[in-house]
Amino acid sequence: MELQSLYRCQDKLLAHKTALFSFLRERWQRTYSTRNLRCCCTT
Fold it and tell me: pTM above 0.70?
């Protein structure tokens, strides 16, 4: 796979970053029954 293809895919994902993380946070909360779930890499 070409490096340019990876960057194009990343650009498409970044356009939806907020919605993607909101969706994932909601799913994690339902799955693990938590209220304030944070990734260890967030500040």
Answer: no
